[in-house]
Structure formats: C-alpha cells, structure tokens
Amino acid sequence: MDIIRLVLDEKQTEALIQACRSEKTTLHGFLCSSLLLAVRKEFDAAGDRDGKDIVLSVISAVDMRRWLAKTIIPENAPGLFASLVPTTHRVKVFVNPWDLACGVNKRLAANLGRGAAHMLWKVLPSWWITPDMNGARRILRLISAGPKGPIVTNLGAITPPQTVAETPVRSLSFAIGPAVYFPLCVTADSWAGKLFVNCTFDGAVIDRRLAEGIMARIRQRLLVG
Description:
Elements: E1 2-8, H1 10-22, H2 27-45, E2 54-63, E3 82-91, H3 97-113, H4 116-123, H5 133-144, E4 151-158, E5 184-191, E6 194-201, H6 208-222
Parallel strand pairs: 2-4, 4-5
Antiparallel strand pairs: 1-6, 2-3, 5-6
C-alpha cells in the first residue's frame, strides 16, 4: 500500500467550499466528479476509449446514522458507521464537472432513498453470514460480483482538539487502506480551515505514476480560485 497526500490551505479550501455552494452541490460530489474525470483522462492519455463515453463506478462511504428511522447512535459517538454505496456514471468526453458532481449526489441520494445500503442485510439469511472463514469467503464472492471502482469518503470538518501550548497539533489527516477489488481510496477531511485529501492505493494493482497522475488532475480541479 502507498499514499499520496494533497493539502489545500485555508484560502484555497474556502474558495472550493464557496464554489460548491454556488453550484448547489457538495464537496463529496465534487471529489467524486474530479476523480471520475481524472480516471477518464487517464484512459484518454493511454489511447483507450479515446473519444468515446466511458461508464465508470465510484463507491461512496456514507454515514448511515442519519438514515436510521430511529436515532440509536448519537452523531458525536466515536466509531465507524458507514456503508459503501456504489453509483455508476456515463462520463462523456466533454462534460461539465459541476453537472457531474450534481449527478453523483442525485444518484447517491436515490440509492440511499430506496434503501440500497441496507438491502444486502435484509435479503441474506443469518446462517449465510457466519463469523468464520466460510462467511468471509461468501461476502468476498458477493463483493466481487458487484460494481468495481475507487472509494471516496469525506469525514467533513473536524473540530480541532484541545491541546496544551507545548504540543500544538499542526495537521490532521485520514486514510483508509485499499481493499480487494477497490485498489484506490480517496479520503478527505477538513481541519483548522485546511482540506486534507489522501489517496491510498494498492501498488501491486495500480502503478504509482498512474496514481500520481490521477491525484494531480484532482488537485487541478479542486483549485477553483
């Protein structure tokens, strides 16, 4: 596993947030849009599918607490409460990145609205998901049959922790390791006015130069000011 880190300062982050608000989309949607367009450009640079539309999937890590019928876990409770929700998009040769960002949000909301993140556990019998290697293999086979794509997750703004003057916290970032069938993960969080974007990738699957090219294109998109 390897990691590439991208940091936007306070001015750049504020310009990006304001642009997202003006375009009536979210930072998460624009991150997904920027990633999809970056992957599209890499296809074009390699001469593969050049000049044609490409269908790509992106997996969003969504905090499911707000989607529960009853609030059983407080918003500020520590822990991991996310589901991986895929959306699929036809990325055209010439596409407005803001329109694509809005499309990501629209499809993500539609999938969540019809319970897509919960359907798996509703239809599978309890004996099928056993806490052993047999259960793990079944889940792996099920995942391998689904959409493949990079994972994008955004923790949002994090309140700076209280620190003593002798040991100030200078930066904070978040990353998740690539999993089987999802060799590239883009994670983001904002802290003290700055935006931190990390790309973790499986070096055995994705060449570092390819990952660096994708992140360079994402950075170019995020610098809207």
